[in-house]
Design a protein that fits this description.
This protein is mainly alpha-helical. The chain has two domains: 5-22 and 179-241, no CATH class; 31-175, Orthogonal Bundle (Helix Hairpins). It is built from five helices and four strands. The chain has a four-stranded mixed sheet. Strand 1 (198-202) and strand 2 form a beta hairpin.
Length: 247
């Protein structure tokens, strides 16, 4: 394959730009904010689940408290009714009076028991409400933190993309001067060789594999025409001769 030596040097420019674009793409996919955002989002989601579960408990306990309140009020109303009947003298029969007095004692114990239940439910309700409020507050704080971090991530990504767009425009200008067959070979090698398709020969060393070429290989390269496209015998990459090749 033949190509003007100046064009071959331009291939190194393309390689530099392609390596830069590879680095920028890697930066986009590994922004430091991305991992932190994933962790914060995980924490927030766990808090939202906790708040939701606490909310279910609040609803259930609220209903349970209302029932406990009704039960207490119902028994109190019955005790007041019986007490009023006794106080008014409406019960004249001694046996009926004794029975009602005993019932009043039973109602008093029942009220005490129900009020104990009522207090226990209220305490549980307060605990559930506190858990719900705490989880919601923590989730809200994380949401704010996530939003701020997303702005930083987007700004960083935008800067990287802008740099990539500039490199892409510059690459297009350089590529326009490179023959199609040489560019095709370079692209193929780049895909096969870890992103490096062309490398400079400097100080008798291939810039791709970093190996110093032996004297016989260097002699062959030295004897090749200046417009010959030579390849590294070690790694197979396009080897571009420079003023620092040491030939």
């Amino acid at each position: 394959m033949k190509a003007d030596p100046f064009v071959q040097l331009k291939l190194l420019d393309v390689q530099t730009l392609d390596s830069q674009l590879d680095t920028l793409r890697a930066q986009i996919t590994s922004l430091p904010e991305t991992e932190e955002l994933a962790e914060l989002t995980k924490q927030r989601d766990a808090l939202l689940i906790r708040a939701r579960n606490a909310g279910v408990d609040v609803d259930d306990l609220t209903a349970e408290q209302r029932k406990a309140d009704r039960d207490v009020e119902s028994v109190k109303a019955r005790r007041e009714r019986d007490q009023g009947l006794i106080d008014s003298g409406g019960v004249s029969n001694p046996k009926d009076l004794e029975r009602m007095l005993g019932e009043l004692e039973s109602l008093a114990r029942r009220i005490s028991d129900l009020e104990g239940v009522e207090i226990e439910v209220m305490e549980r309700l307060e605990t559930a409400q506190a858990l719900k409020s705490e989880a919601e507050a923590q989730a809200e704080a994380l949401t704010t933190q996530i939003a701020d971090l997303e702005v930083k991530r987007d700004q960083r990504a935008a800067a990287i993309k802008a740099e990539g767009a500039e490199a892409t425009r510059e690459r297009a200008l350089v590529v326009a001067d490179i023959p199609a067959d040489l560019l095709e070979l370079y692209t193929k090698l780049r895909a096969q060789k870890g992103g490096i398709g062309a490398a400079a020969l400097r100080a008798r060393q291939c810039g791709g594999c970093r190996l110093t070429l032996d004297a016989s290989i260097l002699a062959t390269i030295r004897e090749a025409a200046t417009d010959d496209v030579v390849r590294c015998e070690e790694c197979g990459r396009i080897l571009v001769r420079t003023g620092e090749s040491g030939l």
